[in-house]
Amino acid sequence: TEPLLEISQFKLHFHTDKGVVKAVDGVDITVGEGEVVGLVGESGCGKSVTSLSVMGLVPQPPGKVAGGSIRLAGKDLTRLGRKEWRKVRGNEVSMIFQEPMTSLNPVFTIGNQMVEAIRQHRKLDKKEARRLAAETLREVGISREGILDEYPHQLSGGMRQRVMIAMAMVCRPKLLIADEPTTALDVTIQAQILDLMRRLNEETGTAILMITHDLGVVAEMCERVVVMYAGQVVEQADIQTLFRDPRHPYTQGLLKSIPKLDKRTDRLYSIPGNVPNPRSMPQGCRFAPRCEFAMDICREKEPGLFTLGENRVSRCWLEEEKKEDADRGTTTVH
Ligand code: SF4
Ligand code: MG
User: Fold this and answer.
1) DSSP H or E run through 116
2) Pocket lining: 178 vs ligand 1, CB cutoff 6 Å
């Protein structure tokens, strides 16, 4: 059966005065019904543009779909018109962002905003919508009297994020996209919000695409992980496999940069160098300028995705080497 979300060879380019920026450059990602999938990478690797594309929120122009498709429950989202988008966004797919204040309108009460969001998709009168709003807020752990008549600035950051989650979930979307939902929150609140999202996933069956630079968050939440670098998928694996045996040097670098609670280190590891300028991608492997294993072929030819098993790929020439070694029946010791 078809997955709930199927992004196939999707390309999203920006046309600017200084040239074409290939922000998303041929990406394949799937999310099954009820599944929680992590999309990780440093900022500027294309994960946010990918997720905004699933929401139809990339302004076109300057953005332009340059190839591929995004199918949600069988519908190609890249072909939806304005009117159709209004039915899909907030209803079949919703999104929450990092900074709650940017998505809650400061001049309207929580109740007004929620009622508004509900009535866009459900034929309910204001009273019924208000009741549904209160009920959904209770589901996300907010039961305080009078909350519906409060304004966003009267709430803490953690509460605002709960309200955002309630608003995103109120129409029971099939897919929730969460872009760095806990990054701005302190550690305790962060854990509570992740708990909440996990519980909602279990109780409602809403699938989650979790966008984050933090593999720690992914470990808490996700069944499967997709790693993006420079507009492409570079590795994909289920969560245990990825942590036990990361294959792509970029993934290995990301894993090394997770802070360890049990170890006191003065300085956290970070991958040397920066993500490449998308207007002038390096020749060959896009990660080569930062890769400690780079070989001659890496600087000449771009690696494709090597399939390493079910739902397991890596975009790295080292896999070719390993394959040849295996074919020759030798083992290489590094
Ligand atoms: Fe490193 Fe080469 Fe693999 Fe790129 S293809 S990640 S440069 S080893
Ligand atoms: Mg981002």
Assistant:
1) helix 110-121
2) no
Assess whether the C-beta atom of 285 lies below 6 angstroms from ligand 1: yes
Ligand 1 atom with the smallest distance to the CA of 287 is 4
Cα–Cα distance for residue pair 101/120, rounded to 1 Å? 21
Structure confidence by residue, pLDDT tens digits, 66-122 = 999 999 999 999 999 889 998 999 999 999 988 665 678 999 999 999 999 999 899
Contact 104, 152 (CB under 8 A): yes
| CA dist., res. 298 & res. 282, Å (int) | 10
DSSP 190-247: HHHHHHHHHHHHHHH--EEEEEES-HHHHHHH-SEEEEEETTEEEEEEEHHHHHH---
Least confident of 36-40, 61-65, 172-176, 330-334: 330-334
Cα distances (angstroms) measured from residue 66 to each of 14, 71, 175: 9, 16, 24
ipTM of the complex: 0.94
Radius of gyration of the chain (CA): 21
Does residue 333 register a pLDDT over 50?
A: no
The finding on whether 231 has its CB within 6 A of some atom of ligand 1 is no
